[in-house]
Amino acid sequence: MISPWDRWYSTSCCLCCHVRTGTIILGIWYMIINAVVLLILLSALYDPVQYRYHLTSSELGTDIDVMDDANICIATAISLLMILICGMATYGAYKQHAAWIIPFFCYQIFDFALNTLVAISVVVYPNTVQDYLQQLPGTFPYKEDIMSTNNMCLVFAVLLFIGCILSFKAYLIGCVWNCYRYVSGRGTTEVLVYVTTNDTTVLLPPYEEAVAISAKDPPPQYLEA
């Protein structure tokens, strides 16, 4: 009987490339995004007057500083951690080290769980969509037209959008998991040799390991009588 993990296992992703290539591209893409975010945050720390965003009194009746130095420092640390995790996944997929891919896979699971909680909160509390729209600035495009739409239609549109995102994220999780299985499988591949004389099975190490062992431990020399 084929297990569900083996049934969905595949060495290709996006219908054209290998799971190792897909994981490397995904890791590089995440590193680029987080590097751009990190540059913006560092620029905000260097010149806070230029990048700090203030809500005017005509919108909320008060002047609120959206991002202070503490929040920027926390976001900078998170961006650095994400660059490290994505770099580990890229290196692990390239050098075929399965353990280096695990942190990135755990991040994907955590991100998927957060988006699932957002979808559940929209279903349980549908009025949160309208509350979120009311918090948007008055200059937001088509704000009044969106707020005049039926609440159920808004909830359905938001759930459809989140569902598409979750489906895409689940596919990426499957690609990274298949890459982990492929890399870990290549690292622990063993060859089965069937001895037909006595119907027994002998488990031998890979050819490269057998050659290395034989080179380290040469057979003893025979002494002539």
From TrEMBL:
Keywords: Cell membrane, Cell projection, Endosome, Lysosome, Membrane, Transmembrane, Transmembrane helix, Transport, Ubl conjugation. GO terms for cellular component: cell projection; lysosomal membrane; multivesicular body membrane; plasma membrane. The chain crosses the membrane at residues 28-49, 70-94, 100-125, 152-172. InterPro entries: LAPTM4/5 (IPR004687), LAPTM_transporter (IPR051115). It is a multi-pass membrane protein. Pfam families: Mtp (PF03821). It is found in: Cell membrane; Cell projection; Endomembrane system; Endosome, Multivesicular body lumen. Its main location: membrane. Homooligomer; upon reaching the lysosomes. Interacts with MCOLN1. Interacts with NEDD4; may play a role in the lysosomal sorting of LAPTM4B; enhances HGS association with NEDD4; mediates inhibition of EGFR degradation. Interacts with PIP5K1C; promotes SNX5 association with LAPTM4B; kinase activity of PIP5K1C is required; interaction is regulated by phosphatidylinositol 4,5-bisphosphate generated by PIP5K1C. Interacts with HGS; promotes HGS ubiquitination. Interacts with SNX5. Required for optimal lysosomal function. Blocks EGF-stimulated EGFR intraluminal sorting and degradation. Conversely by binding with the phosphatidylinositol 4,5-bisphosphate, regulates its PIP5K1C interaction, inhibits HGS ubiquitination and relieves LAPTM4B inhibition of EGFR degradation. Recruits SLC3A2 and SLC7A5 (the Leu transporter) to the lysosome, promoting entry of leucine and other essential amino acid (EAA) into the lysosome, stimulating activation of proton-transporting vacuolar (V)-ATPase protein pump (V-ATPase) and hence mTORC1 activation. Belongs to the LAPTM4/LAPTM5 transporter family. This is Lysosomal-associated transmembrane protein 4B. It comes from Fundulus heteroclitus (Killifish).
